[in-house]
Design goal:
- This protein is 71% helix and 0% strand.
- The protein has 83 residues and is mainly α.
- It starts with 5 loop residues before the first helix and ends in a 19-residue tail after the last helix.
Amino acid sequence: METASFQGLLDTILFIIVFYYALKFLARLFLPVLAKKVVEKASQQFQQQQQNYQDQNTTQNQTSEKPKEKKIVGEYVDFEEIE
């Protein structure tokens, strides 16, 4: 059975510190680029939705311009209650 050594503990702590600072450094490099791409993609999706909405409204306006025929089903009769 192996026992923990002081040198192994120091190596582990040093590894954690180096890993933390390396990750922090890489995040400073890549997060702005990643955030820019996310914003561009969201903007592109918003523009696509806006275009779809405008296309939908123009097709609805074109169809609503046609006069609609009303069906005449009969006379309207107003009933009154008799007491």
